[in-house]
């Protein structure tokens, strides 16, 4: 389906939980956030109802997010049900990777095609500082599991932060020379209660690219499977690619094809949108597929021409993990 700006909306990001087993500094305050009550988040059956209606209006790709989606019980069963929807041709997952060794095989068998794994540093002590919890080696176990299970292309999401991990740009880029990994450098975005922490730590992806080409040489453009916003390149002889997601310096709103379903049952047409379409209320009042289709069309028609990211985060009550990464 086309929105009001003639963009084809075919991608739904589904947050299955607001809970996470890490506390990344740019995502959550040190004490975390109060988790939603179990009865307040969508059931797996309700999520499936929404996705089936979304498929009716043109959604073809589903990405499960959180919080950390792998802490949600029953996720493999949901993936299996979604994989059986004929119109859905791509099911992906964004995860910190820690629980992939436990659930990866079951998810692959259920129909999961590929994963994005968040990794902001290659240094164990720094990993602990950035995430406040967990161990770097556990993420590497997840990455190795994803490669072994052929959940490819395996993409690594790296948020670059000045004074935090910008000295590792070259080391992260070198991973693509050594392993079939697709490292995507993501510009730090001002989101939620962590806005003050973000100040002064932003680095444009143009600067990141300059660092890489200076030390590792020129790159050629390279297409990578997926409908995400990254512009991808490849170093000579590399097994993987290097991508750049420029949400601030060179926004990609003109080609945005996505909607976001929060774990609490609201549909957002843009991460920075102030308006949401409530689906949980109608679902719990017995809304059928046709009513859900109409609500989805309403949300698509509310999609703004571009985000207001430069104006700062306007949602004073929620952080990224509560909306869906």
TrEMBL record:
Cofactor(s) listed in the protein's UniProt record: [4Fe-4S] cluster
NCBIfam families listed in its UniProt record: moaA (TIGR02666), PRK00164.2-1 (NF001199)
Official protein name in the record: GTP 3',8-cyclase
Function noted in UniProt: Catalyzes the cyclization of GTP to (8S)-3',8-cyclo-7,8-dihydroguanosine 5'-triphosphate.
Residues in Radical SAM core domain copies: 4-218
Chain positions recorded as [4Fe-4S] cluster 2 binding sites: 253, 256, 270
Cofactor note: Binds 2 [4Fe-4S] clusters. Binds 1 [4Fe-4S] cluster coordinated with 3 cysteines and an exchangeable S-adenosyl-L-methionine and 1 [4Fe-4S] cluster coordinated with 3 cysteines and the GTP-derived substrate.
Enzyme Commission no: 4.1.99.22
Binding site for S-adenosyl-L-methionine: 26, 67, 118, 189
Binding site for GTP: 13, 63, 94, 155, 258-260
Lineage: Bacteria, Bacillati, Bacillota, Clostridia, Eubacteriales
InterPro entries to which the protein is assigned, alphabetical: Aldolase_TIM, Elp3/MiaA/NifB-like_rSAM, MoaA, MoaA-like, MoaA_NifB_PqqE_Fe-S-bd_CS, MoaA_twitch, MoCo_biosynth_MoaA/MoaC, rSAM
Superkingdom of this protein's organism: Bacteria
Keywords annotated in UniProt: 4Fe-4S, GTP-binding, Iron, Iron-sulfur, Lyase, Metal-binding, Molybdenum cofactor biosynthesis, Nucleotide-binding, S-adenosyl-L-methionine
Protein residues bound to [4Fe-4S] cluster 1: 20, 24, 27
SMART domains registered for this protein in UniProt: Elp3
Pathway(s): Cofactor biosynthesis; molybdopterin biosynthesis
GO process terms (BP): Mo-molybdopterin cofactor biosynthetic process
Keyword Mitochondrion belongs to the record: no
Annotated gene: moaA
